[in-house]
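pipeline: protein-struct stage 2 | run 1193 | Iron chelate uptake ABC transporter, FeCT family, permease protein
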Amino acid sequence: MFIIIGLIICAVSFVTDIIVGPASLTLSDVWLALIDPAEVSKNAYVIIWSIRLPTAIMALLVGASLGIAGAGMQTILDNPLSSPYTLGISAGAGFGASLMVVVGASALEFLGVFMVPFGAFVFASLTSFFIYSINKIKNFSSETMILAGIGMMFLFQALQSLMQYMASPEALQNIVFWTMGSLAKANWVNISIVLIVLAIMLPLMMRESWRLTALKLGDEKASGLGVNVESLRVKVFAFISIITAVAVSFVGTIGFIGIVGPHIARMLVGEDQRYFLPLSAVCGMAILSLASIASKMLVPGAMFPIGIVTAIIGVPFFFSLVLTRKRSYFK
């Protein structure tokens, strides 16, 4: 029921996202452009098919990716503050993108328009691998793992500032634009890549839903039910890392979707992963789509980077979690 309601909200926000923008369009313009392009003006056709439709679709796909990634992280680490953002994965992607903008043009010119996403993907993946490796060696608690992720986030932000200091004015503008998080550069190629990865990883995550539900009972009880806890954590962490790395490599740093989406889903359906995982994805879709609409409505005629909007929404929610969670999470 909640998943169906969420999908209806996503559908409404998706259409609204296409309509809203500096150029005035009506619902009939959108409908005709989708089913009978010959009946709309050339300008309306270009605006819808080249700009607004890719942006609206990318908002849904990235929102779903970050939502399910946050849900998976919170489950395997048993900590409500876990997300791709708080574990430093998004910051790693930001540094990778900045590095490519500043020094990659000469060394990796053959990658063309995929050079910046490639750098973001590589460093997001390396960050995930590093966080998991130190946990494997030291057997950290989930709280310590998050602290390690926050440490990585500060490190990458410092390195990113160094890249900005070294960058030319043109490169600096590109870095700042990317790190603010934006859907403006969405195109059909990027959408296809994110869609394929999500279409592969989401079913793989859902296959583990029973084991993840058992894991919420505790490692010992899950093992008693026949769950290989270590293997499960490795697989799910790998799935999450791939989903996150691909999503943020095209849109930049978008924070808090991986925290807010899963918490809304948890309040609605609890910890049963059969419903929690897909509803987290749907909540992420709805939140990012609504944020995309808000980014175009804050100032008429202007479009704010969507990362700013999600931060404005997410930071108060994050503080409310910190202030209201049980003390056991922070011992």
